[in-house]
Amino acid sequence: MKTSLHLYRSAPPPAQRTPCALTIGNFDGVHRGHQAILARVRQAARERGLLPTVMTFEPHPREYFAALNQRPELAPTRISGLRDKLEALACQGMAQVVIERFNARLAEMSANAFIEDLLVARLQTRWLLVGEDFRFGRKRSGDIDLLREAGMMHGFEVQTLADITDRHGHRVSSSEVRTALAVGDLARAQDLLGRPYQISGHVIHGQKLGRTLGFPTLNLRVAPRCAARSGIYVVRAHGLGAQPRPAVASLGVRPTVEDHGRVLLEAHLLDGPADAYGKLVRVEFLHKLRDEEKFPDLPSLTAAIAEDARNARAYFAVHGL
């Protein structure tokens, strides 16, 4: 179902504007609830001959207001980096994604200007799907009733979608995914996402410490405020050949050897090294082994890594690749 995705900052240029079926949201994680929304957009676009489109925001509005109010602790963690979010949207059949910069201009935009400038003039919206509690415009003054009034005036249809729930009746939301990842509950996260949690990135050069210790690693930068709990995980690495590769990975700040606090994902391939520098690798998280620890010396760290690799091999022996 993956489509060719056209990405625009703010809006398509006038010559490339095409009437669209639109949904609006942050779509962090593109979880099962998001997938239900995107399926509706896809169907409406197909039935009406429109372009299936997502409008999303960067940064997250809550992140913007947390910085504005000097309350960084109120900014949400991020389930997905932008690359992974766009990949997931393409896999859900979206043909166009518009990233609106959430800044003072957008925060202060009136609800009517949001409709007339963004939805009508720049996106040529003909069909719109939003959640039942969707609010927009300065001080969240716009609501569904205003959208429906504007739709009758400007020629677009407005549909709403109730919350999507799991088999236990709990709402599927990005907050639920963040909570699961924060406590290392990968099974719950996978149930909410509909797929294993993953992080992708280009393999970068590290300090080569793993190689010195006998455990060479693939190093990937991680987006700031990553939602996943720091720790040691059994993972699968994609992008290094026709088949995924079994691996054990550390997600965290490397407390034994560094003190700058930057989060890094380091994956040690269990079936041998790979020429991976510069390649785009997708790491799927399958099972959490333990939390990140600070060891007193490198021999203790090496022994722990060896034990982690043994436990990861045992996992794959039972569950397969």
Give the secondary structure arrangement, pairings included.
Layout: E1 6-9, E2 20-24, H1 32-48, E3 51-58, H2 61-68, H3 82-91, E4 96-101, H4 104-107, H5 111-122, E5 125-131, H6 144-154, E6 157-161, H7 174-182, H8 186-193, E7 198-202, H9 209-212, E8 218-221, E9 231-238, E10 245-252, E11 264-269, E12 280-291, H10 298-319
Parallel strand pairs: 1-4, 2-3, 2-5, 3-4, 5-6
Antiparallel strand pairs: 7-12, 8-11, 9-10, 9-12, 10-11
- CATH class membership of the largest domain: Alpha Beta
Radius of gyration: 22 Å
Average pLDDT, all residues: 91
Net shape: elongated
For the largest beta-sheet, the strand count, sense and barrel status come to: 6 strands, parallel
What is the second-level CATH architecture of the largest domain? 3-Layer(aba) Sandwich
Structural class by SSE content: alpha/beta
Tell me the β content: 15-25%
In the predicted model, the low-confidence regions spanning at least 5 consecutive residues are none
Protein name: Riboflavin biosynthesis protein
GO molecular function, one term: ATP binding
Pathway: Cofactor biosynthesis; FAD biosynthesis; FAD from FMN: step 1/1; Cofactor biosynthesis; FMN biosynthesis; FMN from riboflavin (ATP route): step 1/1
EC number: 2.7.1.26, 2.7.7.2
